Amino acid sequence: MANESILLDPEFDTPGKSRGLIDVFKYRYLLTLLLKKGMSTRYYGSVLGWVWSYIRPAAQFLMYYIVVGIIMNGDRGVPLFPVYLFSGIVAVNLFSEILRNTTAAVVDNRALVQKIFLPRELFPVAAVGVALLHFLPQAILLLAVVLFLGWTISLAQIAAFVVGLIIIIVFALGLGLLFGAVNVAYRDARNFVDLILMFATWASPVLYSWTMVHDRAPSWLFHTYMLNPLTSAVQLFHDTFWQPLAPDVAHPDLLMTYVGVGVAISFITLVVGQLVFRKLEPAFAQRI
Q: 81-111 pLDDT, tens per residue?
């Protein structure tokens, strides 16, 4: 009778059973500890520490501005090109850091995976949190620049920023869950992610205007390009920080349609990533 009452108890959970991303909210304390661990080890032993969060995007911006903007005349027809460039770099850097960190999250925490049970999704979600904390200095720097240039905030800009941020986080986390699970058994996954990140900057309007693709590419290729969730996210970041300073510049037709599709693709990617992650999760401790 005792065993029967335990089985019928709605509060009884099978040891080692996880409900996926839903359980992340149940283990908030562990998530906080993983965030602190990620922050403390990020620049462990570094002299400059957090300053690297400013140096890296600044060096990246300077390189692209000199090569693409000045030498290749990429700034032609794009007013306030430095603001346009940096707002795109900030968006792509967040996507890159989330995807890279989430792909490596399970393997980097192999000691915990092998010793105790906890929802394995905690590791990639904590990696997202660390990436967002390192995103803040870049966003603050961008905000300071546009405020100096006369930028004023509106509800439309806040909405564009939030939606762009959601697309980046959800899309990158979905891909990170997928490749992070595969990476446990096959380290080739990290190399494949590096290829994706190598193309990410060029496959979205960061270094050039979307009009160049519109004017030179076939119609089907332009629509495919615009359906890329990262393209929508970068364009929304431009709408937030750059477009108000250059109101006369042409705006993509059907942008809201592309954004809607981008949001849908991002959440579909998250669902697929979670399903693959849960399918491969039982073998993590043995294969890691």
A: 999 999 999 999 999 999 999 999 988 888 8
The answer to whether residue 274 sits within a structural domain is yes
Helix (H, G, I), strand (E, B) or coil at 223: helix
Residue 5, domain member (yes or no): no
- 200 in any annotated domain: yes
Distance CA 246, CA 79 (A): 7
- More confident: 229 or 250: 229
Alpha carbon distance 150, 202 (integer Å): 29
Please state, in angstroms and as integers, the Cα–Cα distance from residue 194 to each residue in 45, 160, 197, following that order.
25, 28, 5
Instruction: Give the C-alpha separation, 262 to 228, whole Å.
Output: 6
Of 135, 146, 151, residue with least CA distance to 54:
135
Domain total in the chain: 1
The confidence score (pLDDT) of residue 1 equals 47
Q: Categorize the per-residue pLDDT at 148 as very low, low, confident or very high, splitting at 50, 70 and 90.
A: very high
Model confidence, pTM: 0.89
Q: Phi, psi at residue 258, to the nearest 5°?
A: -65, -40
Cα 284 to Cα 58, 181, 219, 269, distances in angstroms? 38, 8, 44, 21
CA distance 233 to 230: 5
Q: What is the average pLDDT score of the chain?
A: 86
Is residue 14 assigned to a domain?
Answer: no
| Structural domain span for residue 84 | 19-287
